[in-house]
Amino acid sequence: MKLKAIGTINSPYKVKGDSPRQGRFSEELSKITVFEEYAQGLQDIEKREHLIILYGLDRAEDYKLMVIPPGKTKEQGLFSTRAPVRPNPIALCMVKLIKVEGNVLTVKWLDALDGSPLLDIKPFLPEVDCTLK
């Protein structure tokens, strides 16, 4: 498997512990800069109100398969939680798109640390992402 960054994230969160447990708990703005060679892929992105951002947890620590989530007292399996320490340190966060300026997206609700590598952007589609049967 090959993954490479397609951009970088600039956020107000400089060190671990600065970012909110979940991005939706913050109104802070972040900027996502898509590298020029991928900028064409942003065409029509301004038509989307919400995006799913996948980014690398490049400062994550070693993972454990059993973790104690915040506010809990009992261990749970890693894959039943959203703990940031994972075998493949990839995070996802739904954001609200505020502004597009060339290859730079201004968003809110992003919980990434400043300088995190951007791996992918996908549109959030309620008709697909929220429909459970």
TrEMBL record:
One Pfam family, short name: TrmO_N
Keyword line: S-adenosyl-L-methionine
Residues of the TsaA-like domain: 3-133
Classification via SUPFAM superfamilies: YaeB-like (SSF118196)
CDD domains: UPF0066 (cd09281)
Family of this protein: Belongs to the tRNA methyltransferase O family.
Family annotation (PANTHER family): TRNA (ADENINE(37)-N6)-METHYLTRANSFERASE (PTHR12818:SF0)
Protein name, as recorded: tRNA (N6-threonylcarbamoyladenosine(37)-N6)-methyltransferase TrmO
